[in-house]
Amino acid sequence: MPLVEPSLLEILACPACHATLREDADANELVCTSDTCGLAYPVRDDIPVLLVDEARRPR
Fold first, then answer.
1. Distance from the Cα of residue 5 to its chain's centroid
2. Element of type H or E holding 50
3. For residues 3 and 25, is the Cβ–Cβ distance under 8 A?
4. Contact between 12 and 32 (Cβ < 8 Å)
């Protein structure tokens, strides 16, 4: 089951760099697809938390 509706995922963008997002269902996150950014935003109670302060930094 997808974390968010596919139609919603199409319009969501990374708040930090405006790149597209992809789902990481195993981590329950939406991950920025930019090579330079790569922030991972949590999905809590089926709601994406698209706040840079809540994002996990890439390693």
1. 13
2. none
3. yes
4. no
Which residue in this structure is represented by tokens 């302060």?
53
Task: Check residue 49 and give its pLDDT.
Answer: 97
pLDDT at 59 over 80: no
Q: How far is 8 from 41, CA to CA, in rounded Å?
A: 15
Contacting residues for 59 by C-beta, under 8 A, at least 6 apart: none
- Token representation of residue 59: 């390693």
Half-sphere CA count of 31, side-chain side, radius 13 A = 14
The backbone torsions φ and ψ at residue 7, rounded to the nearest 5 degrees and listed phi first, read: -65, -35
> What would the pLDDT profile of 1-45 be if each residue is shown by its tens digit?
889 999 999 999 999 999 999 999 999 999 999 999 999 999 999
CA 4 vs. chain centroid, Å, equals 10
